[in-house]
Hints:
The protein has a 6-stranded antiparallel sheet. A 3-stranded antiparallel sheet has the order 9-11-10. The longest helix is centred in the middle third of the chain and has 69 residues, at about 225-290. Helix 7 (about 185-195) packs antiparallel against helix 8 (about 210-220). It is rod-shaped. The chain has 2 domains: about 5-200, N-terminal domain of mukB; about 295-399, no CATH class. The protein has helices at about 40-45, 50-55, 60, 70-75, 150-155, 165-180, 185-195, 210-220, 225-290, 300-305, and strands spanning about 5-15, 20-25, 80-95, 100-110, 110-120, 140, 145, 165, 295, 330-335, 335-340. Mean pLDDT is about 75; it is low at about 300-365 and about 370-399. The protein has about 400 residues and is of the alpha+beta class. About 35% of the residues lie in helices and about 20% in strands. The protein is built from 10 helices and 11 strands.
Amino acid sequence: MQERWQMNKLGFVNFWLYDWEEFPFSEGRLLLRGENGAGKSVTTQSFIPFMLDGDLRPYRLDAFGSKDRKMAYYLLGEEKEESTGYLYLEFIKPERKLYRTLVVGLRARRSNSAVEFWGFCLSDGRRVGTGPEDFALFETKGSQRISLTRQEVHNRFGDSENWVERGSDYKQMVNRMLFGCAEMEQYDRLLRLLIQLRKPKLSKDFSPRLVQEILNASLQPLSEEDIAPMVNSMEKMDTIQHRLESLGQSLQEARQLRNEYTRYNQYVLGKKGQYYLTARQFTQQRQAAMQISCWVPRSPDALAVSVRRPPIHSGNASRSWCCGQVPPPVPRWGNGYVLLPDPAACGRPGRGRRRAFCAGTERPAAPPGAARRTSGTAAPFAGGPGASGRQPGAAGHEA
């Protein structure tokens, strides 16, 4: 951060009650303490804001805004007919030990209401004082200190652009040497703010309306260039807020869609499961029905023999049937036939199924009353378990 100027010392020469008096600052701060009427207000109002703008109007000098006391009064008092006095305010940059001193000279005469004004700024390292290298504003004769005239001070100071003789020029010089405001309007608003803040009993009857008046009277109005970044930021904030709201609504709709799609998937999965269970039950029922439709000879010896059927050369692939398993006891139906529970031992399931008979057994005769067919599906056996049976063929071969 760039180092800033700080007030370092305030001085008076032949001004009001002071013959020559200096008030040092501590880190840019000054505390005055004294009884009522000791001169605290006059001391402060003599350099703030006067030492910053050189304005001699009475209401700018009085902290209460009164026009009773003029600058001539602080120079002449009650007895003097003519007087010359000086006020100076020294600034410092502590780290680099740089000094700049504002000096204002005043001359008043009782016969003339106007007060002569001149001012300058010491920026070459010289400081106001009484040392051999200091810039003196008075001469000491005995016990008296006599202020130097304007011409004497000008001769010591030399020709420079930092010497002015009008209040308006002095204010511009102060701004250029110390504050560096780009426009004088900014500097004027700074001075008005200082005048508002120096008012005594500022906190009395403090209200929002008073705050508004103080701010309007002292703060700099913002230009369009100053407001543009803030307005753009606010517009971006509104855009971002609308975007967030839109994204939030989209997220809510996506969640609703996900919930509905999950319910749909659960419904479809349940339906498929139901179809599977129904198909499984139907398949088990068909398998049970096919078991009932299988008939083999009743002889236990025949059931214990394993045979392989000779190949059939009618265009179909060769197949074999195994009847080596002995089924558990099963119900019997007329003429020596029993039900075989295992459909794998009897060939292909379904109506008109082919039957296998063990080698060495006789072909069982058809039940009484059964009609013999030359091809296709045989008529049901009399006394059989239903209409799914078919008349058997030759022993050991398919019908």
